[in-house]
Amino acid sequence: MIIFALILWALLIGAVLFACYARYIEPAKIVVTERTIRVPHLPEGLRGLRVVHLSDFHCQRKASIERSSRRAIDLAMGLNADLIAITGDIFDICNEAARCSHQLEGLSAPLGVWAVPGNHDMAHNDPFTTMQAPPESVEVLRRVLREIGIRLLENTSETIAVDGARLAIAGSDDLGFGRDDVAAAMRGTAGADLVILLGHTPDIIDDPHAAGADLVLCGHTHGGQIQLPGIGSPWAPVWRDRRRASGLLRANGRLCYVSRGVASATRARFNCHPEVALLTLERGDETEAVEVPVRRNGSSRNAYKEAAL
Length: 309
Hints:
Elements: H1 2-25, E1 31-39, E2 50-54, H2 63-77, E3 83-87, H3 97-100, E4 113-116, H4 135-147, E5 150-152, E6 156-162, E7 165-171, H5 182-186, E8 194-198, E9 215-218, E10 247-251, E11 254-258, E12 275-283, E13 290-291, H6 300-305
Parallel strand pairs: 1-12, 2-3, 3-4, 4-5, 7-8, 8-9, 9-11, 10-13
Antiparallel strand pairs: 2-12, 6-7, 10-11
């Protein structure tokens, strides 16, 4: 009877310790993830290009979120990046943009800080409803991002000259509210030596026009937040294949990096630290990545809708 009671107490203490770790410790321990991306046709002018990839700040009026945002920015600025990309859910709701933009101040890079909207950025009042923010709120979001030096791409692209090479940055608008148009985002990238496509959800890889990019950067999943040994993420907001939840993927011959994000929707993480990713581009043929299939019988929007299945 005493042994049974000791076992129960041990299980109870273990559960409490696990809950405290997942709730308070791991979500606050942002790590830097470094990967080398090898591109066969990479021109000399882009060799060694350093891209810092950030995602899912979910800026809002909470002290813990502000600490995470400021820590991520400090880490990012210490990495000597040539370019910074933010793949959506910058704010927890569109209405927070004017009140919380200070949490993102200080980001800069020689080739610019680029971003795309996420579903939370386009949400009105409650991020878990399907109510889209009104146009005037979205315009405020655009304005405050411009004021702090973040260039928002909404189904468009820009091409930058870098040491004789042409680098195109394309960005797709939010897929969750049906604002995405990858074809339009990629339209101006013809002739570029390298194309980086930004999208919020990794289900963008199902869009056939994404195949025109050399590197796709995404977020949205928070890595699944809970990664169980030998199992991975039990659930993540992606279409069926949970391997899309995080890390470097290869889909349809193209590389895609899915960020685990800076913040956490439920502020609970296990074996899935929030991250700042540093991606260094080099010339070569082999980049170790997880091969994932592309859904060919439907659009990325349909995949997004089926993500919970």
